[in-house]
Write a structure and sequence with these properties.
Layout: E1 3-7, E2 12-17, E3 20-26, H1 27-30, H2 43-68, H3 73-81, H4 86-98, H5 104-119, H6 123-132, H7 137-145, H8 151-162, H9 171-183, H10 188-197
Antiparallel strand pairs: 1-2, 2-3
Helix pairs in contact: 2-4, 3-4, 5-6, 5-7, 6-7, 8-10
C-alpha cells in the first residue's frame, strides 16, 4: 500500500492509500513521524497511526470543552466518546486529570454553590444533581453537606419571593409554590411547617 497526503484546513493532513482517502491526522503528529509521500505502509501501521491521531484529536477536543466551562471526569469522557473511540477518550481524560485540568472535588464544590445561588436548590437536590453530572456519590454528598445553608430560612425566603406579604394567593397558587419547594429538594416537613405558619392548608398533601 502506497501512502500519499494532502494538506487540509485546520492543521490537518489527509492520508490516502493507493489514491483513496482513509483519514486525517494532526499536522503536529505527522511531522513528528518518519513517513512521507510514496512510502509503503501496511494495515497494522495504518491502524496504529489512526489510533495516535484519534488520541491527539480527542485531547484537543477535551481542551476546547474545558475552555468553555468546567466538567466532571465522567461528563467529559461521555462527550468525547460521542466522537472518538473509548481508548482515545479515556487517554484524553487521563491526561487532563494528570495536568490538573480536571478535579471532581473542586468541580462539585463550585457547582454546588452555583446551584444554591442561582436555582435555590436544597442540599439534597444539589447532591442528586451532582451525581447525575457523573460525580462520585461520596464526593457529591461531601459537597452538599459542606454548603452553608439554613434550609428553613431558605424556604421562607423563597416563599416570600414567590408570594410577597401583600398578595393573596389562591389555593392553586399555594399548591404550585409548595410543589416547587418540594421539587427543589426541601424536606416535606420543613416545607409544610413554613406554609402552615402562613396559615396555608396542607391537608391535600397529608
Amino acid at each position: 500500500m502506497i501512502l500519499s497526503t494532502t494538506t487540509a484546513k485546520s492543521g490537518k493532513i489527509n492520508l490516502y492509500i493507493d489514491g483513496d482517502f482513509r483519514f486525517s491526522v494532526p499536522a503536529s503528529l505527522w511531522f513528528e513521524m518518519t513517513l512521507r509521500d510514496g512510502d509503503e505502509i501496511n494495515e497494522e501501521e495504518l491502524a496504529a497511526l489512526q489510533e495516535a491521531a484519534d488520541s491527539v484529536f480527542a485531547y484537543d477536543s477535551a481542551l476546547r470543552l474545558l475552555s468553555q466551562r468546567a466538567h466532571s471526569e465522567k461528563e467529559l469522557f461521555e462527550k468525547l466518546r460521542q466522537k472518538y473511540k473509548t481508548a482515545a477518550a479515556r487517554q484524553a481524560v487521563d491526561k487532563c486529570r494528570a495536568l490538573g485540568l480536571l478535579n471532581d472535588e473542586q468541580f462539585a464544590s463550585l457547582l454546588a454553590d452555583e446551584l444554591v445561588r442561582r436555582k435555590h436548590y436544597a442540599p439534597k437536590r444539589v447532591e442528586n444533581e451532582l451525581i447525575e453530572r457523573g460525580i462520585d456519590r461520596q464526593i457529591a454528598q461531601s459537597a452538599a453537606q459542606s454548603l452553608d445553608i439554613d434550609e428553613k430560612i431558605s424556604i421562607i425566603d423563597i416563599i416570600d419571593k414567590l408570594c410577597p406579604a401583600e398578595t393573596r394567593p389562591d389555593e392553586k397558587q399555594k399548591k404550585r409554590i409548595i410543589n416547587r419547594l418540594l421539587r427543589l429538594g426541601y424536606a416535606p416537613h420543613d416545607v409544610f411547617d413554613a406554609v402552615e405558619a402562613k396559615g396555608w392548608n396542607t391537608a391535600d398533601y397529608e
